[in-house]
Amino acid sequence: MEEIIKRIEELTAILKKANYEYYNLDNPTLTDQEYDKYLRELINLEEKYPEYQDPNSPTKRVGGEAIDKFVKVKHKIPMISLSNVFNEDEIQDFADRIKNAGFNPDYVCELKIDGLSVSLHYEHGKLVYAATRGDGVIGEDITHNVKTIKTVPLDLKKDIDIEVRGEIYMNKATLAKLNREREKNNEPKLQNVRNAAAGSIRQLDPKIAAKRHLDVWIYHLPNPLDYGIKTHKEALDFMRELGFKVNDASRYVSNLQGILEFIKEYTDKRNSLPYEIDGVVIKVNDINMQQELGSTVKYPRWATAYKFPAEEVLTKLKDIKFTVGRTGQVTPNAVLEPVLVMGSTISRATLHNEDYCIMKDLRIGDIVAIKKAGDVIPEVVEPKIERRIGTEVPFVMTMECPICGSSLVKKGNVDYFCVNDECPKKNIESLIHFASRNAMNIDGLGDEIIEDFYNEGFIKSIPDFYNLKKFQDNIIDLEGYGLKKVTNLLEAIENSKNNSLERLIFGLGISGIGAKNAKLLASRYNNIHNLENATYEELVEIRDIGDVLAKNIVNYFANPINISLINTLEDMGVNMDFIGSSVKENVNFSNKKFVLTGTISFMNRDEIKALIESYGGKSVDSVSKKTDVVIVGEAPGSKAVKAQELGIEIWNEEKFKEIVDSL
After folding, report:
1. CA–CA distance, 539 with 553 (Å, rounded to integer)
2. Would you place residue 26 in the very low, low, confident or very high pLDDT band (cuts 50, 70, 90)?
3. CA proximity to 461, closest of 325, 323, 322, 326
4. Contact, 133 vs 73, CB < 8 A?
5. Which of 84-88, 151-155, 516-520 reaches the highest mean pLDDT?
6. Can you name the residues that pair with 282 across neighbouring β-strands?
7. Residue 207 CB burial class (10 angstroms; 0-12, 13-18, ≥19)
8. CA–CA distance, 168 with 140 (Å, rounded to integer)
9. DSSP 64
10. Are 623 and 644 in contact (CB under 8 A)?
11. What SS3 string covers 415-472?
């Protein structure tokens, strides 16, 4: 528990400091992504261990305190902030919570402007004062500077007492112009539009604020029922009629799909807008429903903010661990403080090799930038050297295998290998690869099970898979294994003997040969022994093979141990021939590119992809102008929306089934 208490105290201190820097100094040292990450971690810990919660925890406050140079103003209605969601699943959870409370709402989606929140107060249609959010209860009087913003009306079109709320911001072009002028005057550049807007609005001299050409969007009426307004959409129209600048880029939507379509549209348009946005705000439209849903201490339950996924985020490099692959290659890996990158939580990332770590000057304890290469593989981009505090530990490449302790051997210019053929981890990784989905596809033999069986002595080499039956009674005695589970496993192993040759080639683990090239070789040579006798000169001429792979293939079959393995597997009844189906012609599939989105009830994704390929089509991951058909199942993602925008042919489940049934 000491560790939990320490972490709660540490997170509380980090967030309080960040709030002060952000709200009071306009000089944040944490990125929004880092702040969100720490806040979510603290919320989770406080929910799990409420007895250790700080009474003044940042989770119970909205922002920073009003600074002394401005008069403090108490908000008549608290200016609470919004909860954040980061992906489609969390948006779905938000909608589900509202439905589970007994409501079936429609929504209004708005752009989340990157600026500074403001409350404007009018009496008899005249601006009386303007205030910042502050801590949500007490804000700062910034009337003298707000009056310099030309889009803030000093007189409304009606004689009315009213409070409205919005966002003060600076356009991108304005920031660029200001920074050019500051550069000429040898002044430091303004960091970004949010800091520039906040810093400008807190100037004591309104002439300085006036020169910054700030702007405002008004988006919230705190007490709409007092004006007979029943929906948020009506409130936006009402404020527009009074003379306030209300963003037209808002949309009434009736369901979750509408929300996702709006998010997709403005994710694409984001960079073309003249102002910065960092997400989309989603609000229940019906005001009575809003009031019934109510709020927590900090957040309304009827609204949330979807934050655009950061393409590059910051986190701490906690450690560097070394792992051994099936070829014996030893790779450094980053152990990271868990962080959300493009919708998924990342806590590990490969560091590739010694040169990569040295070139980037990575040190344990660094704050590092992380991104997803190709939106899939997490990559450590760089350390933030300016964030170093002097306790970071420089990277040192290990010279010993982290598993067996053998001395490593450097092959080529950068890579180190464990050359001990008996290295347990190396052998385990080879076994895991052999049984994997794209190789022999032995259902029920996951990574942990293979490791358990290795440690129990049941499987020490590839042929041992096909002798596992003799350990049946021993396996049944293990915790978590019953007769049915073991019977199914042994049946899956037996069935794998009938796989087509390409699976065996891939499963053997020939260096550099992936599933695609394995199928190419299998279809060309038809039998493993034909491939065994292939020459370098012959192989190098095959498209997609080339010099390096040709050498790897020849070297593999030149090793008597590998030949013995193949002969043993053949004696055990493992198929050595290519039995893959030949490509059939079909006007619906041949030479077309397909994208799948959503769930098809009568076929899984792998089956659909196999079907497409068997008729000469190609399955791709993303929608583009080159896509021919998008197959749309239940609960599709944004790919369906993009297909509609590009005018690409769409097959729903009914049409797809009709085509499949006709084959």
Report:
1. 8
2. low
3. 326
4. no
5. 151-155
6. 109, 304
7. exposed
8. 14
9. P
10. no
11. EEEECCCCCHHHHHHHHHHHHCCCCCCCCCCCHHHHHHHHHHCCCCCHHHHHHHHHHH
Task: Give the tens place of pLDDT for each residue, 425-481.
Answer: 888 889 999 999 889 999 888 888 888 888 788 998 999 999 999 998 888 877 677
Q: To which residue do tokens 């295998």 refer?
A: 401
List Cβ neighbours of 346 (8 Å cut-off, separation of 6 or more): 315, 336, 338, 339, 340, 370, 372, 378
- Which residues, 6 or more positions from 495, have their beta carbon under 8 angstroms from its beta carbon? none
Lookup: tokens for 339: 């962080």
DSSP conformation class of 72? E
pLDDT tens digits, 290-323: 999 999 878 899 999 998 876 678 999 999 999 8
d(CA 629, CA 652): 10
Residue 453 burial by Cβ neighbours in a 10 Å radius (0-12, 13-18, 19+): buried
Tokens found for residue 272: 């073309």
Beta bridge partners of 618: 593
Q: What is the DSSP string of 236-283?
A: HHHHHHTT----S-EEEESSHHHHHHHHHHHHHHGGGSSS-EEEEEEE
Catalytic residues: 112
Alpha-carbon distance values, 415 to 512, 546, 641 (Å): 15, 21, 44
Who's near 395: CB < 8 A, 6+ residues apart? 320, 332, 357, 358, 361, 362, 363, 364
CA separation for the pair 597, 585 (Å, rounded): 24
Provide, for the chain, the percentages of residues in helix, strand and coil under a 3-state DSSP scheme, each rounded to the nearest 5.
40, 20, 35
Identify which has the larger pLDDT, 124 or 195: 124
Overall average pLDDT of the 149-175 stretch: 93
Q: Report the distance separating Cα 10 and Cα 314, nearest Å.
A: 18
Q: Whole-angstrom Cα distance, residue 212 to residue 200? A: 7
Report d(CA 388, CA 386) in Å as an integer: 6
User: Tokens 């306790």 sit at which residue?
Assistant: 391
Sign of CA dihedral 110, 114, 117, 122: negative
- Helices H / strands E in the chain, number of each: 24, 24
Q: Which helix (H) or strand (E) holds 14?
A: helix 2-19
Of 579, 475, 557, the closest CA to residue 510 belongs to 557
Produce one character per residue of 80-116: b if its CB has 16 or more CB atoms within 10 Å, e if not: bebbbbbebebbeebbeebeeeeeebbbbbbbbbbbb
Q: Greater confidence, 614 or 255?
A: 255
62-71 tens-digit pLDDT = 555 555 568 8
- Report which residue type is found at 632: V
Residue 655: both structure tokens together: 């049409």
Determine phi and psi for 132, rounding to 5 degrees: -80, 170
Please report which confidence band the pLDDT of residue 583 belongs to, taking 50, 70 and 90 as the band edges: low
Distance of alpha carbon 432 from alpha carbon 445, whole angstroms: 8
Q: How far apart are CA 291 and CA 77, in angstroms?
A: 13
As given in the structure block, the two tokens for residue 520 are: 């190419």
Higher pLDDT, 89 or 490: 490
Q: How confident is the model at residue 564 (pLDDT cuts 50, 70, 90)?
A: very high
**Cα distance from N-terminal residue to C-terminal residue, the chain:** 63
